[in-house]
């Protein structure tokens, strides 16, 4: 059975129980819409909480790398300046 079908069926049963035993007649349409909105969300939350979960893999082992020294590259020489007009 699909979860959405089960949620709609249970929401309908809750509305019937409210009509038959709590209010003994008609139920306010606002309350009916709240039941139909809240019950599927609550059932999805409960199903997600109770579902078996896949364990996460173990954290990777951190190893210390050997110390490495980094030297900056030598400066780049600037091109010779051009003097005078060369046409």
How is this structure best described in words?
It contains two helices and no strands. With 87 residues, the protein is mainly α. The chain has a domain of 48 residues. Helix 1 crosses helix 2. The radius of gyration is 36 Å and the shape is elongated. The protein starts with a helix and ends in a 37-residue tail after the last helix. 0% of the residues are buried.
Report the helical percentage: 40-55%
Largest sheet: none
Number of DSSP E strands: 0
* Alpha-beta classification: mainly alpha
Distance between the termini: 87 Å
Overall geometric form: elongated
Q: Averaging pLDDT over every residue, what do you get?
A: 78
Q: Enumerate how many helices there are, as a single number.
A: 2
Q: What string gives the helices and strands in order?
A: HH
Furnish the topology, listing elements before pairings.
Layout: H1 3-22, H2 29-50
A few lines on this structure:
This protein has helices at residues 3-22, 29-50.
What are the key terms here?
87 residues, mainly alpha, 48% helix, elongated
């Amino acid at each position: 059975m699909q979860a959405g079908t089960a949620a709609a069926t249970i929401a309908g049963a809750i509305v019937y129980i409210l009509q038959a035993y709590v209010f003994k007649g008609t139920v306010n349409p606002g309350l009916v819409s709240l039941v139909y909105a809240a019950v599927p969300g609550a059932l999805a939350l409960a199903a997600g909480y109770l579902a078996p979960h896949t364990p996460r893999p173990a954290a990777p082992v951190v190893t210390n790398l050997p110390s490495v020294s980094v030297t900056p590259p030598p400066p780049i020489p600037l091109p010779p300046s051009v003097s005078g007009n060369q046409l």
